[in-house]
Write a structure and sequence with these properties.
The chain has 411 residues and is mainly α. It contains 15 helices and 2 strands. The structure holds fe (ii) ion (2 copies).
């Protein structure tokens, strides 16, 4: 009988003395604090940094960052320690506030992707060489995966910083962030209350009904009209990215982690839908920027807080959009328009998931208590906002059916 060849020892199953559970917990708590601070700065900036590409990237990156933060919280829990890493230290609060005070969009991009992301990535990279990969294997695995995901985030971030601030003007502001001092009275950072669009977009904000926008043109067939309308609807889900990002920002301190991870998934999905709208309009030989962008959704929701913007979009927006998109996907399959069928099959899959999971979470978590009451609460809040914006009187809005509210504000 031939000898069984000796196989290599698994590299991660090795240990060196010095790593302790206490040390692991301390380091993980520090990483969680930096991760949540980065999420705060990024989620608030989704609103007022105007560039389309920033909003798309931020949607994807929030999903990655909140996922990492959730893994850190779970591991801390396993290690028998549950520090509240989401309260942010006074110094972190001050740093986030200073970041958000950078008015120029270029400077903000510089601080988020030139300061916060490299700092966070550096902390993970540093830890990667220190964790005992045998005794503390789950931590080592978490840190390795986060390190790889953050490299992906930084590839876009480094290119964005180079494009936005070629003169390195953000570096002084980044140094000032490093030297921040703050005391216990430091307030929680404040987010913007409106969404911004870059100059490539023409916009309208009295309705979400594209057939009532100034640039509506009937297509060659009802099918073609529906297709263009629904591609525009998806491109304009920029305001859905903004909505879910602002609910993340508002709920960091007090929301359960399951709400935050779900919202981060929503932000990513809506970034994919907005990008899909843009790209498929281009595939059809159309210029996406020739179609004006509706802002009413974010104008109404950015003035709401916490669970409300999320509930408004779920109960009055997403519910209304799935039907028309399913109908279009069916018509596309029947007509042999495979590309359109594929695009809307995937988007409908996402939206169905959004609706199912969001309704379950909001039913359980929204302070109004139960979906019926949640719907009434956000209907009233939306009526106030619509009146403040001068779009219609509060009582007129309150008389609208769900379908009419959807036509007015959309997803
Ligand atoms: Fe969507
Ligand atoms: Fe959605």
């Amino acid at each position: 009988m031939t000898a069984i060849p000796r196989l290599p020892w698994p590299a991660a199953l090795t240990t060196t003395p010095g790593w302790s559970r206490d040390l692991s917990r301390r380091r993980l708590a520090g990483l969680a604090a930096t991760t949540w601070s980065t999420v705060s700065a990024l989620s608030a900036s989704v609103l007022d940094v105007p560039q389309f590409e920033f909003k798309l990237a931020a949607g994807e990156h929030l999903h990655i960052l909140v996922g990492i933060a959730a893994d850190l919280e779970e591991r801390l829990h396993e290690l028998g320690s549950a520090p509240d890493t989401r309260q942010l230290s006074p110094r972190h609060r001050r740093q986030v506030t200073s970041t958000l005070a950078a008015d120029a969009a270029t400077l903000r991009v510089g601080l988020i992707y030139g300061y916060w992301l490299p700092r966070l990535a550096g902390e993970f990279e540093g830890l990667r060489g220190e964790v005992d990969t045998l005794l503390d294997g789950p931590t080592a695995d978490l840190v390795r995966r986060a390190d790889e995901q953050l490299r992906h985030v930084r590839r876009w971030g480094d290119a964005a910083v180079a494009a936005a601030c070629s003169d390195g003007s953000w570096a002084d502001a980044a140094r000032a962030l490093d030297e921040t001092v703050a005391d216990d009275s430091e307030p929680w950072p404040v987010r913007p209350r409106d969404g911004a669009r870059d100059e490539r977009f023409h916009s309208f904000s009295h309705t979400r009904d594209y057939r009532r926008s100034a640039d509506w043109v009937e297509g060659d067939s009802p099918y073609e009209s529906d297709l263009i309308e629904l591609l525009r609807v998806n491109r304009d889900e920029i305001d859905a990215i903004e909505t879910f990002a602002l609910s993340i920002f508002d709920l960091i301190r007090k929301g359960p982690i399951e709400a935050l991870t779900h919202l981060a998934r929503l932000a990513w999905d809506e970034a994919r839908h907005a990008a899909t709208g843009d790209l498929v309009l281009r595939e059809r030989g159309l210029d996406p920027y020739a179609f004006s962008c509706s802002l009413i959704g974010i104008k109404v929701r950015a003035g709401m807080d916490g669970y409300d913007p999320w509930a408004q979009i779920t109960l009055f927006g997403e519910l209304g959009i799935i039907g028309p998109m399913r109908a279009l996907a069916r018509a596309a399959h029947a007509a042999g328009d495979q590309r359109t069928a594929d695009v809307f099959d995937f988007i409908c899959t996402d939206e169905t998931l959004h609706l199912r999971q969001s309704r379950e979470l909001l039913d359980r978590l929204h302070p109004a208590g139960g979906l019926e009451r949640v719907a009434e609460t956000v209907r009233a809040r939306a009526a106030e906002r619509i009146a403040e914006l001068g779009i219609m009187k509060e009582e007129e809005f309150l008389a609208l059916s769900r379908e009419e509210i959807f036509a007015l504000i959309g997803e």
